[in-house]
Amino acid sequence: MNIIRKSKKEKDSSYIAVVEVDKKFHVVQINEKRGQVESFLPSDCPSKNAGGLSYAARINKNGVKYVSSGRKRQNALRLFNKYIKKE
Q1: Is the pLDDT at 82 greater than 80, yes or no?
Q2: Rounded distance, CA 43 to CA 40, Å?
Q3: Is 7 exposed, middle or buried (0-12, 13-18, 19+ CB in 10 A)?
Q4: Residue bearing the bigger pLDDT, 59 or 52
């Protein structure tokens, strides 16, 4: 698990990051205080009809694969920039 790019840390010690796992790139929210990784992109979260919650797992490569879909590097960075600039 390799962090390629990350945003500024928030008050609750969480940040958005692009993480490389097995040659795929994932955009996730990492919360160091809780020791977990969470889904961040709308396409990785369940629909609003299903409750609209995000997935969460422990910070490790299997956790990242569980909460997020793997993408090519260029697409992951594009989505990261799109949603980070929105905030």
Answers
A1: yes
A2: 8
A3: middle
A4: 59
